[in-house]
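quick one
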Amino acid sequence: MEYCVRSLPLITFLQWVPDPIVMEFLVFMKKLLIALDYDGTYTEDPKLWDAFIALATKLGHRVICCTMRYEDTEGDEVKDLLRGKVERIFFTGRKNKTESLSAHEVFPDIWIDDAPHWIFQDAL
Ligand SMILES: [Mg+2]
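structure w/ magnesium ion:
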């Protein structure tokens, strides 16, 4: 919705353009923040997710990794595989992902997670 408010004059102009072109343009304008899980998601097919991250980034989207692992004791593997590919890696230490990221003022548009309940629940 944020882009709609800022782009009001542009959208008014785009009313004169055929719908498929308008939709493609609006999709082009909306840059997504995508949170990718590590265990059970990235680990299931790293080549697939590497290609996804590269394409999403090329299209202007931002990809971060959000894992419930503890950074100090379990983080090295994640860093080795994802550093330089994703924008940032967040380790929540078994805390639910939405609260952990919101504490950093990070609010993903899309979550990619094999176990989506951990987005909202702590794992203690
Ligand atoms: Mg997982």
